[in-house]
Amino acid sequence: MSNNKSHSDVRGNEVQNAKKKQSEKINVIVFASLCVVLLVAVGVVFALTKTGNHSKPLETGDSDKEIINITEKLYVSWINEIYTSTDQYLGRTIKIEGMFAKEVLPQKTYYYVYRVGPGCCGNDGAMCGFEFTSGGEYPQENDWIEVVGTLEVYEENGNKFLTLSNSKITVKQERGLEVVGN
Asked: In the CATH scheme, what is the code of domain 60-171?
């Protein structure tokens, strides 16, 4: 008997080792993703428990008529709060600044106001903001805009989406932070 392994044995071990390394990479990515989600959740809770203007969800009553002003200070926290607690904010007026983008599809064009939020695991960040609609003209791509509109939800192809409807759009000369981290 020989101690030499066949090519198929060696190749099988290489494949098995490659699968093991790939599985380990996936586990690291999943763990890192969970850490980011946990950090964002803790950040939202922390931001919403701070005192001060617009650092916690508004109470019911007269404050329902107040405009929710999403500023650079708690931009990502507010976006996360509104997307996770949508029912508390439906019908409310939201004011938000950011870059303008549009997505042209054969059946419809979608318009967005956004900033770039924090990324994870080699991702340089993602769009963080809202879709909006307006009866007027739309600005140029990447213009810095202020949008004031009413938060609504609509369904399309079995999925629900948030939009700021009946929005008033103002193109601003002074740009804010394009990349936000909170």
From this structure: 2.40.50
